[in-house]
């Protein structure tokens, strides 16, 4: 049986192209499973998974939990706001206490960059990074590429622009790595203040004119402005941001081509994207969410195969 080249899913940076191919092949099978009348397989009946969320989440948390349950794993959920972290417990102590309950896989969302890598060096469990601060969100990038492949037949050779708050976005960095690994061309577009200085080292195109960016691309992945990570003002007002970088029907009609619209969620309707675009036929936002379950089933299944009993 084919195996992943990594022991944890800590970031797309650590994956090879054949890992992504294997995850997509496995996800194809699980996508068929979750569309059956009985959406569950007994594959991971002897595996226990802890979902540790130290930051808010709707899609990722529910998607992982559903993926685990569809694979028949035992699941425990931990939310930092209701835990002893509030009493001063460290991350390693918290996780080791959870692992003492015989947990095999930890799904970790954490506000600190590198939290997953750190944990993988200190605890005896498989770690899946469900978002570490502004760094990486690997399963989001995998489901995004999988959704592009589903819609356009391939990722290779496609032109993808990532629009908005690139500076604070783990989705952007993981997408850049994943898309480039699969042979796509990548552009980022946003205000200068929201494009990180290290962007030139990533070999992506940079554009500040939204119309030019849309004229160039096949796919536009629209990001939310992450106000919760900003302690200074990066642009004068939301209204100005929307005028310069917001995606609306008039703008899309002025670009005479069919563009696939994506958004990782949560959406700020009327800020980075209007409702008419988010709910339009060219948007695949809910397909991304559906594919997230199949992709996460695939990642969990493949990592669980490495656990020797
Ligand atoms: N896309 C994403 O990570 O959404 P959540 O923050 O709701 O998990």
Structure overview:
With 309 residues, the protein is α/β, with parallel strands linked by helices. It folds into two domains: 12-136 and 289-308, 3-Layer(aba) Sandwich (Rossmann fold); 138-286, Aspartate/ornithine carbamoyltransferase (Rossmann fold). Helix content is 39%, strand content 15%. It has eleven helices and nine strands. The strands form two sheets. Strands 7-6-5-8-9 form a five-stranded parallel sheet, with helices on both faces. Strands 2-1-3-4 form a four-stranded parallel sheet, sandwiched between helices. α2 (59-70) links the parallel β1 (48-53) and β2. The mean pLDDT is 95. The structure holds phosphoric acid mono(formamide)ester. Phosphoric acid mono(formamide)ester is lined by residues 57-60, 131, 137, 140, 264-266.
Summarize the structure.
Helices cover 39% and strands 15% of the residues. With 309 residues, it is of the alpha/beta class.
Write the layout of secondary structure elements.
Elements: H1 17-34, E1 48-53, H2 59-70, E2 74-79, H3 91-99, E3 105-110, H4 115-122, E4 126-132, H5 138-152, E5 159-163, H6 170-181, E6 185-189, E7 205-207, H7 210-216, E8 219-222, H8 238-245, H9 249-254, E9 260-262, H10 275-278, H11 285-304
Parallel strand pairs: 1-2, 1-3, 3-4, 5-6, 5-8, 6-7, 8-9
Helix pairs in contact: 1-11, 2-11, 5-6, 5-11
Bound molecules: phosphoric acid mono(formamide)ester (CP).
Residues 57-60, 131, 137, 140, 264-266 line the site of phosphoric acid mono(formamide)ester (CP).
């Amino acid at each position: 049986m084919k195996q992943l080249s990594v022991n944890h899913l800590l970031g797309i940076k650590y994956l090879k192209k054949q890992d992504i191919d294997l995850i997509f092949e496995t996800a194809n099978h699980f996508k068929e499973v979750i569309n059956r009348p009985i959406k569950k397989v007994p594959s991971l009946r002897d595996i226990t998974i802890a979902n540790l969320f130290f930051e808010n989440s709707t899609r990722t948390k529910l998607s992982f939990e559903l993926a685990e349950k569809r694979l028949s794993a035992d699941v425990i959920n931990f939310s930092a706001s209701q835990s002893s972290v509030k009493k001063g417990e460290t991350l390693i102590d918290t996780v080791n206490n959870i692992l003492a309950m015989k947990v095999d896989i930890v799904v970790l969302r954490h506000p600190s960059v590198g939290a997953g890598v750190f944990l993988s060096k200190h605890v005896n469990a498989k770690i899946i990074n469900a978002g570490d601060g502004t760094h990486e969100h690997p399963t989001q990038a995998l489901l995004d590429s999988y959704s592009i492949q589903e819609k356009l037949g391939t990722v290779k050779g496609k032109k993808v622009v990532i629009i908005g708050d690139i500076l604070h976005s783990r989705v952007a960095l993981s997408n850049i790595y994943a898309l480039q690994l699969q042979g796509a061309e990548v552009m980022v577009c946003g205000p200068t203040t929201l494009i990180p200085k290290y962007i030139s080292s990533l070999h992506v195109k940079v554009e500040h004119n939204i119309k030019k960016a849309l004229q160039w691309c096949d796919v536009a992945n629209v990001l939310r402005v992450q106000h919760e990570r900003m302690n200074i003002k990066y642009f004068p007002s939301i209204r100005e941001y929307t005028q310069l970088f917001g995606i609306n029907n008039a703008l899309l009609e002025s670009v005479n081509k069919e563009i696939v619209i994506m958004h990782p969620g949560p959406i700020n309707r009327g800020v980075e994207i209007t409702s008419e675009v988010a709910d339009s036929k060219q948007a695949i936002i809910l397909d991304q969410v559906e594919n997230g379950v199949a992709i996460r089933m695939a990642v969990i299944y493949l990592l669980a195969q490495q656990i020797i009993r």
